[in-house]
Amino acid sequence: MSKSINSIMLIGKVKAHPQEKRTKFSAYLEVMVETVDKYIVDGQQKTDVELHEVRIYGNLAKIIGPQISANDTVLIEGQLKSYERQFHVKLNKFQLILKTNSGELLPPDYVR
User: Fold this and answer.
1) CB atoms within 10 A of CB 15
2) Cα–Cα dist 29/100, whole Å
3) What are phi and psi of 89, to 5 degrees?
């Protein structure tokens, strides 16, 4: 049984190219987002790195999927969900904050 836990906001990097997945009942786009939390404890810097599974359903997946790729920085707002003791984030809002360099240094209209 699926259960909504609470709202969540993540700012992080996309770790791999989004993948299309299916369940018995629906299809979704899976995006793995890495967040890094840095803080100081007893004068020493600590770093926590977490990997979050974000699921994007429906037409939103078709729109967002082609826009994002690995190492893009994104803002995700959604609901933290659990299903059979596994957690994922169901996307409510999405914003691309920083697009990685595609490797193309010339303007797109430049003819070689």
Assistant:
1) 13
2) 20
3) -110, 125
Inform me whether the pLDDT recorded for 39 exceeds 90.
Answer: yes
pLDDT tens, position by position, 51-86? 999 989 888 888 888 889 999 999 999 888 877 677
pLDDT of residue 110: 46
Q: Specify whether the CB–CB gap between 105 and 74 falls below 8 A.
A: no
Q: What contacts 94, CB < 8 A, 6 or more positions away?
A: 56, 60, 64, 74, 75, 76, 77
Residues with Cβ within 8 Å of 96's Cβ and at least 6 positions away in sequence, in order, are 67, 68, 72, 73, 74
Using CA atoms, how far apart are residues 107 and 52, in angstroms rounded to an integer?
34
- Cα–Cα distance between 29 and 18 in angstroms, integer? 6
- On the question of pLDDT at 17 being above 80, the answer is yes
Asked if 76 and 33 count as a contact pair (C-beta separation under 8 A), the reply is yes
The vertex-77 CA angle with 30 and 55, nearest 5°, equals 15
Q: What is the pTM of this model?
A: 0.76
* Token output for 89: 């984030």
